[in-house]
Structures are given as structure tokens and as C-alpha cells.
Amino acid sequence: MGSTSFRQLTGNARGCLVYEPLFLIPYSMFATYSSIFMYQLGVTETGIGWITSIGLLVQVLSSFLSGYLTDRMGRKRALLYFDVLSWSIATLLWAVSQNFWFFVIAAVINGFQKVPHTAFYCLLVEDTAPKERTYVFTLLQLISVVGGLFAPLGGLLVYHFSLVPGVRIMFVLACILMTIQFIGRHYATRETEIGYRKMKETKSMSLREGMVDYISVMKGMLKSPLLLIIFGVYILFNFQMTVKTTYVSIFMVEYLHLGSGLISVFPAFSSIIMLMFMRWIMPRISESKVNRTMVWGFIISVFANVVLVIAPEGDLVVLSVSTIIAAVGTMMTYPYLETAVANAIDDDNRAKIFALLQVLILIVITPSGVIGGWAYGIDPRIPFLLVAGAFAVSIPLMMLYAKKSKASPIEAGA
After folding, report:
1. For the stretch 82-95, what's the b/e string if a residue is b when 16 or more beta carbons lie within 10 angstroms of its beta carbon?
2. Who wins on pLDDT, 366 or 191?
3. CA 320, CA 243: separation in Å to the nearest integer?
4. Spatial distance between the Cα atoms of 27 and 147, rounded to a whole number of angstroms
């Protein structure tokens, strides 16, 4: 993989990634606090679960439409219009939220984020050679890790202005910075060749015909066992991520009794560990060992969540150990998993296959908000046992994928 530097990047990958910090820095600041912000404004744990699930339901709908819209409008236009809708407008709404209903409306608007998600993915990957993709996803992870280092700025705002006003300031900042990002990236990228071709093909295609087209794409997907296994692992990965991000901050403040200003230190701490891993360990992992690395990453991630569950109240040492192990587990899985999925999808149907994958992910994780809230109500540790369980199921699936892709390497990169 060699050294990871921006200089190696060209074209759309460069245009996409160079503006990404403007999204990830404000996002990492408010993401730590959004659940507690709702809680402080009188939304119950079950209410938070419902808001998460309503948002996810809208994401199912927007995922389903995202392949059609990305092909019809072109990658760049779909990305710009729907990013402004789902993030610029939603962050502004969160900034002025007063009660449960404000959060519901914001969750519905933010639910359209799956359209730009598919468009961004196509723009990032389509004109990039398959062998360069691990490198692109590693850089994307690196930027999100560096974004995590800024999470304590959110803690400072909360410490200085108290929780609710501090979080409102974060949302206003997010609205401004994200909007600058969307416009800047629009001018720094160009439509992909496949994007142009798809715009021509779908120009006269009605929405109904576009939906019928999904059926033939889905039939093709079902014929590839390798694609289905790697999608299964990817879906489980997204499930655990949703449960953990929704409840880990509330768990630390309510159950482990940490100060709300202190919890923003953990994402930053996690980011430092990831940066060290990227710098010293990742360059030593050869292409042939990627699948084995992912299996070990899942094993480590199970252990990280078990440590979190048994952490004594207010014990920063045990929490730090759990954070370190979880960060290492993420770095051993996330960039490689993203690349495996990107390389398994055929370029010609990328927007639609990726859209269908998003729908499958969401069907599995939509109930996770309600299940997580219900489980949290019984015992705050249960959601993290569910997370550990998702990683545990991924281990045999990944081993099966490794075995099958050795047997038929052609299909693995189909």
C-alpha cells in the first residue's frame, strides 16, 4: 500500500477528499452530543430510539431512489442538491430544535442523505483504478480519524456555554462549514464517464422503469454467493455502528457517570490510536493477508465491547483500554471491508447495486434504534452485547469469504 499521501491522488478522488474535513470536523463535534442534546430537551430514551428509526425509515426510501436519481441527475448534481437538503437544512433545524417534533422533522430531512451517499461513492470510486481503492478508503478513514481529533472542541463549547447552547453553536458551525464543502467539492470534481452514460440512458426512463431495472440487478446479485457473503459482513458492520454511536455517549454519562464535557475526549483518543495504526502497522499488511486481518479485527472488536460492558462506574482506565482495542479493531476491518465491497460491485451497475446494498443495510438496522432503546431501558449494557454479537457472527462469514475468494478469485473481483 505504500505511504499514504494526498500527492498520489488525482481526479475526483482528490476533489472529493480534499473538502471532506469541512464535513467530518463539525460532524465529529456534534455526533458525540446529539443523543444527550435530545435527552436534555426532554426526549426520552425510547423517544430517541423512535427518532433514530424514523430517520432510518426515510433513509430506506431515499436509498431505494438513490440509484435511480444518481443515474438520472448525474453524480455531481445529485450530490450537491441532496447534500444541501439533508445536511445544510437539517443542521439548521437541529440548531433551533425545541422538542421531540423538531427532531422528527429534522430526522426526516436528514434521511435523504442516502442519495448523496450513493452519488459520492460513485464519484469517488468510478474513475479510480481498483488497485488504488484501498488507498482511497484508507485516506477517507484517515480524514474521519483526524476529524475525531476535533471532538474535544465540542467538549470545550459545552464546558463554556453549558450543554444545550454549546450544541446549538456546533450545529450552526456545521451548517456553515458543510455548505462551503458541498459547493467547493462541486467545482473540484467532474462527472464520471459512467455518470454521463447513465444520464443518457435514463433520460427518457420513468421512475417506474427505473424501479423495474432494480429487479434485474437484484437477480444478478443473488447469483453471486461471494457478493452476498461480503454484503452480509458489511450489513452487520453497519448495524453495530448504528447501535454503538446512538447509545455510547448516554451510556458513559448516565450509567458510568462521566462528566458530559469529558466524553468528547474518547473519540479524540480513539483517533490518535487509529493514526498510529495507519502510520506504522497498515503499510506492513500485504494484499494477501487482508482477509485474515479482517477476521482478527472482528475478534478484537468483540473483546473491546465485552470490556466496555464490564467497565466499573467512572473507571477511566478500563474505558481507555476498551477505546484502544475498539480503535485497532476498526482499523483492521473498515478500510479493507469498504474496498472488498467496492471491488465486488460491477462498474456498470454500481449506483443501483450500491443503492440496493444501502436498502438491505437499512432494513436490518432500522429496527436497531427501537431495539437499542428497549434493550437500554432493560439494562444499559445490553446494546453493547448486541454489538459484540454482530462482530462474533462476522468472524465465520469472513472466514467463509476468504476461503471462497481463494477458490474463485475471478468472481471476487467481478
Report:
1. bbbbbbbbbbbbbb
2. 191
3. 20
4. 8
For cell 475478534, name the residue: 299
Task: Give residue 75's pLDDT band: very low, low, confident or very high (50, 70, 90).
Answer: very high
> CB neighbours of 101 closer than 8 A, spacing ≥ 6?
none
Measure the N-to-C terminal CA separation of the chain; round to a whole number of Å: 22
| Cell digits of residue 406 | 481463494
pTM score, two decimals?
A: 0.84
Q: Which of 20, 5, 233 is nearest to 135 (CA)?
A: 5
Compute the residue count for the chain: 414
Q: Is the pLDDT of residue 358 over 70?
A: yes
Phi and psi, residue 140, nearest 5°: -60, -45
194 torsion bin: left (phi>0), alpha (psi -120 to 50), beta (else)? alpha
The CA distance from 5 to 259, in Å, is 37
The rounded distance, in Å, linking the Cα atoms of 94 and 97 is 5
Average pLDDT rounded to a whole number, residues 219-239? 92
User: Residues 146-180: pLDDT tens digits?
Assistant: 888 888 899 999 999 999 999 999 999 999 999 99
At residue 224, the pLDDT reads 87
pLDDT category at 286 given cuts 50, 70, 90 is: confident
Torsion angle defined by CA atoms of residues 309, 311, 312 and 313, in that order, rounded to the nearest 10 degrees: -80
Task: Report yes or no: 139 and 147 within 8 Å, Cβ to Cβ.
Answer: no
Our measurement of the distance from residue 79's CA atom to the centroid of its chain's CA atoms, rounded to an integer in Å, reads: 16
DSSP secondary structure letter of residue 261: T
285 secondary structure, DSSP code = -
Measured CA to CA, the distance from residue 365 to residue 56 in angstroms comes to 8
The reported pLDDT for the residue numbered 414 is: 39
SS3 label, residue 20: coil
* Residue pair 159/19 in contact by the 8 Å Cβ criterion: no
Could you please report the per-residue DSSP string of 91-142?
HHHHHH--SHHHHHHHHHHHGGGHHHHHHHHHHHHTTS-GGGHHHHHHHHHH
* Amino acid identity, position 248: V
Q: What is the pLDDT of residues 49-74, one digit of tens each?
A: 899 889 988 999 999 899 999 999 99
Q: Tell me what pLDDT residue 411 has.
A: 46
From CA 154, how far away is CA 167, in angstroms rounded? 7
